[in-house]
């Protein structure tokens, strides 16, 4: 799954985008998961609610979703997400489609060397529908 997702690094960010012509964050995640027959909600706001299990950092796995606030960290509701790609003792990397001017489009980010910790909300593992 991670290799497939990395094939799209550099694809433009497009608000509402769900295809290789351009992705928003949830459109990219849904596109990648769909390739592996995993059905997930279309919007980031629904990830923590539907068919998911929250886990803490110590139990995160590659392929889990990391959920963040939108650009305003004071509004503590889901607004951005990525797929965890690498976990080690001192790092956690995730791939996502970003609207930031610093790293626009599909990119891979080192969580601990970014501005994302202040926006962190949760990590979820997507599970099968009940």
From TrEMBL:
One of the GO biological process terms: proteolysis
MF terms (GO), sorted A to Z: cysteine-type peptidase activity
Pfam families recorded: NLPC_P60
Source organism superkingdom: Bacteria
Domain NlpC/P60 as annotated: residue spans: 1-127
InterPro entries: NLP_P60_dom, Papain-like_cys_pep_sf, Peptidase_C40
Family annotation (Gene3D superfamilies): endopeptidase domain like (from Nostoc punctiforme) (3.90.1720.10)
Keywords: Hydrolase, Protease, Thiol protease
Keyword Hydrolase assigned: yes
UniProt family annotation: Belongs to the peptidase C40 family.
Designated name of the protein: NlpC/P60 family protein
């Amino acid at each position: 799954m991670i290799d497939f997702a990395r094939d799209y690094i550099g694809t433009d960010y497009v608000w509402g985008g769900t295809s290789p012509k351009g992705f928003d964050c949830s459109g990219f995640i849904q596109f990648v998961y769909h390739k592996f027959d995993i059905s997930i909600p279309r919007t980031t706001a629904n990830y923590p609610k539907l068919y998911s299990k929250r886990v803490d950092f110590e139990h995160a796995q590659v392929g889990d979703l990391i959920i963040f606030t939108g650009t305003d960290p004071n509004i503590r509701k889901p607004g951005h997400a990525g797929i965890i790609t690498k976990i080690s003792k001192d790092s956690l990397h995730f791939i996502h489609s970003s609207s930031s001017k610093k790293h626009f489009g599909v990119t891979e980010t080192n969580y601990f060397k970014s501005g994302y910790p202040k926006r962190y909300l949760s990590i979820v593992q997507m599970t099968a529908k009940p």
